What we know:
Helix content: 25-40%
Structural class: alpha+beta
Number of strands: 22
Strand content: 15-25%
Largest sheet: 4 strands, antiparallel
Distance between the termini: 5 Å
Mean pLDDT: 92
Shape: elongated
Number of helices: 10
Amino acid sequence: MSNTPKVRFKGFGEEWEWRRLSAYLTVSTLKNRDKVYGKEDVLSVSGDYGIVNQIEFQGRSFAGESVINYGVVETGDVVYTKSPLKSNPYGIIKTNKGNAGIVSTLYAVYKPTALTDPYFVQIYFEQDARMNNYMHPLVNKGAKNDMKVSAVNALKGDVIFPGIIEQNKIVKCFEKIDYLIILHQKKCDETKELKKYMLKKLFPQNGKKVPEIRFAGFTGDWEQKKLGEIADKVTEKNIGLQYIETFTNSAEFGIISQRDFFDHDISKMGSLDGYYIIRNDDFVYNPRISVSAPVGPINRNKLGRTGVMSPLYTVFRPHDIDATYLEYFFKCACWHSFMIFYGDSGVRSDRFSIKDSVFFQMPIPIPCIEEQIEIGIFFTNLDHLITLHQRKCNELKDLKKFMLQNMFPQKG
């Protein structure tokens, strides 16, 4: 194994040193004897969020009747929790970046020595394989699958750290990456919330003839038409197997190829001649219900190609309406009340049931074409921003993963 990482800041050339973790951390014996901290100060350790206030994170305190024997965790202290996670079966190690508090006696609390930047310790153990490989030889599992390792013994494994100046440099690098991840995730979440809000405000609700919010220059009542007046049911069958790519309609991902969703085609070739042909910009109603689609989702084919759909779906082709406007109308929930009133969940609890003749009676509120286009552009831009921030967030997470792999020496 190399004692130097592949990626390194300029000015650092010396090899990293193998030492026991006890050279960098010492067991803290500080307890809450003076009752400085109460149940509102109890901390939990999360794999994704680090050390967090239990009430703020989980909505309540899980502390026992007395917290006198709880360990005090000051800012910069390191905590090891033996609670197994799916990716970390031997527990996790995190550094307290927030306010001081207390933790259950099940946790081990450590103070950094003069050789240690405590925030480097968390970064070092953030790679799952590194954490698991370190802790595995030190842990014995009890009869109840609980971890048998003392606070002292958890420090007896070997780690390879650089000098503290290089530790500081690495910490600052990861702090910047984490800050940018949080920033883009926050912007992504805020934009999603804005979209959710505007889906309620830009379409008429509860039988009203105008929405609560309108773009400047648009007045007058909206018209209401039945779905059957602005869309035709697609009944074209795939006779002669003209198309073999099967699409599916996902509440989360929209209309996508089965190959992308399931990694292979679910439908059998012999049955495809009875499937409906779905062309670009056709709409599809999927009767399968879920938490995010309580009456089933309606989505638009934006794949730019033609495929086939199971006859279990209802396929329709709009006309005399802006397709983007209609697409976003079906993202709001104002059409759900019609479905609930005229349909039911059927024999199968996971599938909604409504007759085609009734389905196409669904009322669709329609403004003038210019307002339709304006609404479509607005939501398209919001989706573009959501995608942009999510992509940037994912790129930064990939960068962090790369740096966790390459800014630390790896076993050869």
